[in-house]
Amino acid sequence: MEVFFYGLFMDLNILSKNGIEASNIRKGYLDNYTLKIGNRASLIPSKHKRSYGLVMSVDKNAIQSLYAEASVADYIPEDVVITLNSGDTMEGVCYNLPAESLTGTNASYAKSLHSLAESLDFPSDYLKKIKVMSEVSDL
Hints:
Blueprint: E1 2-5, H1 12-17, E2 23-37, E3 41-57, H2 60-66, E4 76-84, E5 89-96, H3 107-119, H4 124-134
Parallel strand pairs: 1-5
Antiparallel strand pairs: 1-3, 2-3, 2-4, 4-5
Helix pairs in contact: 3-4
């Protein structure tokens, strides 16, 4: 199945440690979603916004097992239309937290995500947005 990742699961090492062997990895984005980082990251519907990530082919059973873990069990799969950097669009699944479950702040998560997004050469405006979230106190 095709899954759009936008948080630290874009890191192939993290996926591999969780039993996910991804293939056919491509950069892309979702229009009309904005990234929010509470205790964890999620994409929230938001008109005229864009969120970047990686789309990967992964085994359906493995991804269901990944999202059965307690720390991410509240994430819900959503069908989305992904625009690839090539300009082509495709259907996929994106796991998001319900808005009411997105609480707190997590500057250390945002710092790690900023570093990862920077290594993926995401647009500078998007990197700035993540950097601002990394500068918010966890207190």
